[in-house]
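tmp note - Fe-S cluster biogenesis protein NfuA
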Amino acid sequence: MSALPPGLQHKVDAALEAHVSRFLDSHGGAVASASITPEGDVTLRFDGACQACPAVAATFYSKVAPIVRAVPGVRSVSAPNVNVSEAAVDRILSLSAPRRRSSGGGDHAR
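out:
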């Protein structure tokens, strides 16, 4: 059995603390590394308000996963309570994003 790459657990936890924890804490939630395999597959655990939050998938894919994926040695990131694909979340976010109004001269410029 292979050992965990040196310092990987600490690097993942430090990245979560530095870039994610304050945001989640402000909403009554938290995230922590539940397990890390020697190959660099990270499983995260959402706690507190995140456990029942309908936006946990959007938070995972837009804020949390990119931070953890950026840690050298991480191959993949997952969370058991995120049951929506990244593609589905991207589609939902694109449909719910505010639309910009055209600044062109349109019909009202007459």
